[in-house]
Amino acid sequence: MKQEEQQFLNDLDKRLWTMANKLLPMLDAAVYKHVVLGLIFLKYVSDSFKERRAELQAAFTDPNNDYYLGDDSAELIEQELEARDYYTEKNVFWVPALARWDFLQANAKVAVGTVLQVKNGKTTEYKFNGIGRLLDDALEAVEKENPKLKGVLEKDYARKQIDSALPGLIDLIAEIPFKHGTLHAKDILGHVYEYFLGEFAMAEGKKGGQYYTPKSIVTLIVEMLEPYQGRVYDPCCGSGGFFVQSEKFVEEHGGRIGQISVYGQESNPTTWRLASMNMAIRGMDFDFGKEPASTYTRDQHPDLSADYIMANPPFNMKEWNAGVKDDDPRWKYGIPPASNANFAWMQHMIHHLAPHGSMALLLANGSMSSNTNNEGEIRKALIEADLIECMVALPGQLFTNTQIPACIWFLTRSKSARNGTRDRKNETLFIDARNLGYMKDRVLRDFAPDDIRKIADTFHAWKKGENYADEAGFCKTAKLEDIKKHDYVLTPGRYVGAAEQEADGEPFEEKMARLTAQLNEQFGESARLEAMIRENLARLGYGG
Q1: Of 122, 209, 299, 392, which residue has the fewest beta carbons closer than 10 angstroms?
Q2: Is pLDDT at 94 greater than 70 in this prediction?
Q3: Strand, helix or coil for residue 170
Q4: Is 9 within 8 Å of 181 (Cβ atoms)?
């Protein structure tokens, strides 16, 4: 993306967020999120429809175009512009008249109104009462006309009783252009949607983090796995961040949308809707199952064999196994304890991994060393099966919702030489990234692009066997025998050691003598200052 266009998006984000927060102070972030994101979605489908409509208008009136309808065909053109097939053939959602943004904005301040709808050559009259009800009906109509959106849109603006604030919010979102330079509706509104998801996650704190993984961590995982093409799966997909970043990765590396197939699952109904809208805004084809459902008990993709799996499951989830049998075929490496779902997630993902597939999942640091309740035995079995490819220890304070230290597990079905990689059997790469990143504010740390590049480049160099070398304090390749010596503990710090300190040229004995003298001097100065303070207090009549 051009620098000017990126700056335009960044400025748009901040301006919209600041103004949006002024419009609805009566709602908490969890509720406000759906109000704003639902409107952004409506703006997107309407803008995409409007863009396609303008293309058709130009084609119908251009004598050199195959769609040309003649010079005296104004009425026919108007009818053709309302023909659904012209839109769906380009994967553009069909938007009924009452859901088009210009109509919504024009009627936002009208208490009661009427709109004429033309469908299949027939004109019908629609009456509405208040903007909240109009928005609900508009979303209902969009969902009805586009089966892919069935059950996805949240239609309860009227129930929230916020009609007084909605016109201002609609006017604000109307300022989002559907074109800027080479950017189109999908690019602009997708970016705004993603930005707002992140801001709402921070505003909601711990609860918000359940559906949002920090972008830098998502980017790191995608850059390391490199999902160029194939089936991409996330069994706890939240708002769909891994899928968005995967599509960006494909496009940035010369591919095209459609080279990857997206499969996800999410148990939270509202988050499932957020993810579905997120995919729809970007024009991505997706399969999130028929409904929101538990991955443990109602796997929505039982026959899926995925090429890439990425996930950020809830850390250390307790009492997850209600309705799950101990003889479940997924528990090939051991029965996960009821007190912690970490290795249940991991084995579920392995179960769905293709023969040459690769996967990554974020887990709490305890997963690398815990020996309680069969966890140590499961980890040992995974190591002995030679599934662990790379372990990355992350710095603290990366998440909005937890301060629990985290790591990334990278697993693969096959470490054989393939597609430019070397044979890595019985080898595991350990990366300690705890000293990377920067503080973006008082409480949150983030990775800079150079940090992501350093970690990802190290991983790829190791896989290829080119320009890789162990670096004390950062990375180390270990054999299976080395891991056995460490009792199958996978904490990178145990393997990479401490970073070498640069020698300053001063002999130890001389440095020690100098520092001791300096310390004694500071002790003497401290005693002198203490005596002065006591003397001054005595003059004022305080102290003894």
Answers
A1: 122
A2: yes
A3: helix
A4: no
In tens, the pLDDT along 216-263 reads 999 999 999 999 899 999 999 988 989 988 988 888 877 777 789 999
| Closest to 44 (Cα-Cα) out of 182, 180, 160, 187 | 187
Secondary structure letter of residue 178 according to DSSP = S
Q: Whose CA is closest to 202, among 214, 192, 185, 186?
A: 214
- DSSP conformation class of 130: S
Q: What is the pLDDT of residue 54?
A: 93
Q: For 471, which DSSP code?
A: B
Could you tell me whether strands 353-364 and 260-264 are parallel, antiparallel, or unpaired per DSSP bridges?
A: unpaired
Buried b (16+ CB within 10 A) or exposed e, 200-227: bbbbbeeebbbbbbbbbbbbbbbbbbeb
Residue with tokens 């603290």: 396
Beta bridge mates, 324: none
Task: Let me know if 339 is exposed, middle or buried by CB neighbors in 10 A (0-12, 13-18, 19+).
Answer: middle
| C-alpha–C-alpha distance, residues 474 and 496, integer Å | 6
HSE-CB at 76 with a 13 A cutoff on CA atoms is 9
pTM: 0.81
Cα–Cα distance between 1 and 8 in angstroms, integer? 11
Work out the burial of residue 398: count CB atoms within 10 Å of its CB; fewer than 13 is exposed, 13-18 middle, 19 or more buried. buried
Nearest Cα to 108, choosing from 92, 131, 87? Answer: 131
Q: Is 498 helix (H, G, I), strand (E, B) or coil?
A: coil
Which of 3.40.50.300, 1.20.1260.30, 1.10.274.10, 3.40.50.1370 is the CATH number of 3-194? 1.20.1260.30
Q: Are both 3-194 and 205-496 of the same fold?
A: no
Which neighbouring-strand residues pair with 114? 127
Question: What digits encode the pLDDT tens for the residues 476-492?
Answer: 999 999 999 999 999 99
- 212/270 Cα distance (integer angstroms): 13
What does the domain layout of the chain look like in residue ranges?
3-194, 205-496, 507-544
CATH H-level, domain 205-496: superfamily: Vaccinia Virus protein VP39 (3.40.50.150)
How many Å apart are CA 293 and CA 315, to the nearest integer?
A: 19
